[in-house]
Inverse folding.
């Protein structure tokens, strides 16, 4: 028995949360100080990103597939996971991930993330009003390429749009 | 061994099942007596609230025709100082209303602090404050659900937070004072032995093995010099040896469960999982 725990349970847990999230912390407790300087803390942070990655890839299949094709999935998720307050529910974190990417400057990623988010909401009858997404790539070809494992970045370029609607048989229609 | 799922001393072989994989289920059901489900892998959001997915519920009901069902949660965060994740209890209410469950279990640890998700499970400091907190919540669970409840030892990734109780003593106290059982994860014990120098012989000498109703066997990875219980591989002989030790010494043991993550199924393959179960049945039967 080491008897190392000296803080109250709540203070102990809050201190560890601060360390994991990279918050500023006045470290006086010897155990917390030890954790702060440990490789174990690095691993805990990595584990958190791994779990979020699993959930995001399971929920955001199209967008994740594009990022995987580009070799940027891990870096994109790690950057996204740096923000605080992410839910442990992969549906909520996944939607937030898509919202984040729907605002990116990358045109294909921006349109695909917006489309996937709208489609997921429509599938759950949570979309409300119809959503129209502008594309600089042919959207049906993008989706087919992703499903077939072909580079989506090689899809036909041009001015296209997709309407996502709960009223449509396939929930979306491209033009 | 009288059937595929029965080990020696009347102990059953069990397997974890994350749901949504009928092919996997078809491969493993003939090999086990017990299927362990996690409500956390079966949930869907309905009007902003987590609920058990209706298709998963129907699927789970069908399992009960061929095997006993037990439940193992991940999200309760029974050790969070400010409060546990109450939504998980609503899932249990849903599940228990529809499926006969032999027992349910959760982790002796915490995943949330003041509502923030830590992204992983942390071990509790083994203090009287933590003991009283967890014991109170175990009593509440047992009053609410009338289904036997087990607590599982977690593998600590951070340095051991210590406390006034030993690991075995902490488990003995909580289970002894509440009447709950223990789910002994022997791979987690191996991780603690490797990462923090836990003396396994001393642990087993102190632990009241009559409290143990279930054993988990699994295998994870080594990363940055630490052993992690990521449940992604087939078990090692050292883990099986510990399971055999518990079978011999724990008079109330009911099941040994091969635990693996749903995310690991693709890498493992159905054949390897089935072979693992068959191998465990052989290793734990004699």
């Amino acid at each position: 028995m080491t008897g190392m725990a000296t803080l109250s349970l709540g203070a102990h847990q809050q201190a560890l949360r601060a360390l994991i999230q990279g918050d500023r912390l006045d470290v006086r407790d010897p155990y917390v100080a030890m954790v702060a300087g440990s490789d174990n803390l690095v691993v805990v942070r990595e584990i958190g990103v791994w779990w979020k990655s699993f959930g995001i890839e399971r929920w955001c299949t199209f967008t994740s597939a594009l990022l995987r094709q580009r070799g940027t999935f891990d870096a994109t998720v790690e950057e996204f996971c740096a923000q605080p307050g992410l839910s442990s529910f992969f549906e909520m974190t996944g939607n937030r991930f898509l919202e984040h990417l729907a605002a990116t400057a990358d045109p294909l990623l921006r349109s695909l993330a917006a489309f996937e988010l709208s489609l997921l909401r429509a599938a759950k009858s949570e979309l409300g009003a119809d959503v129209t997404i502008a594309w600089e790539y042919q959207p049906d070809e993008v989706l087919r390429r992703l499903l077939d494992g072909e580079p989506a970045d090689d899809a036909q370029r041009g001015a296209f749009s997709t309407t996502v609607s709960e009223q449509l048989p396939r929930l979306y229609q491209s033009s | 061994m009288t059937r595929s799922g029965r080990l020696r001393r009347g102990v059953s072989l069990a397997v974890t099942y994350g749901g949504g994989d009928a092919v996997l289920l078809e491969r493993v059901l003939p090999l086990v007596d017990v299927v362990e489900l996690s409500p956390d892998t079966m949930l869907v959001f309905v009007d902003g609230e987590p609920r058990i997915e209706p298709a998963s519920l129907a699927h789970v009901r069908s399992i009960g025709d061929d095997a006993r069902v037990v439940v193992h949660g991940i999200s309760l965060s029974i050790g969070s100082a400010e409060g546990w994740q109450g939504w998980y209890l609503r899932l249990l209410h849903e599940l228990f209303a529809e499926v006969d469950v032999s027992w349910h279990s959760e982790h002796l640890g915490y995943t949330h602090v003041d509502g923030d998700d830590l992204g992983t499970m942390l071990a509790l400091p083994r203090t009287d404050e933590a003991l009283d907190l967890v014991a109170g919540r175990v009593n509440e669970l047992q009053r609410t659900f009338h289904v036997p409840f087990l607590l599982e030892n977690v593998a600590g990734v951070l340095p051991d937070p210590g406390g006034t109780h030993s690991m075995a003593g902490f488990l003995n106290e909580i289970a002894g004072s509440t009447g709950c059982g223990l789910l002994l994860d022997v791979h987690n014990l191996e991780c603690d032995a490797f990462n923090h120098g836990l003396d396994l012989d001393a642990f087993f000498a102190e632990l009241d093995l009559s409290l143990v109703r279930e054993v988990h066997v699994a295998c994870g990875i080594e990363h940055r010099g630490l052993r992690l219980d990521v449940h992604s591989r087939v078990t090692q002989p050292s883990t099986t040896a510990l399971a055999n030790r518990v079978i011999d010494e724990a008079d109330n043991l009911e099941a040994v469960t091969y635990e693996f993550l749903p995310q690991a199924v693709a890498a493992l393959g159905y054949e390897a999982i089935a072979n693992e179960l068959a191998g465990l049945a052989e290793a734990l039967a004699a």
Q: What stands out?
A: Strands of chain A lie at 131-137, 157-164, 172-174.
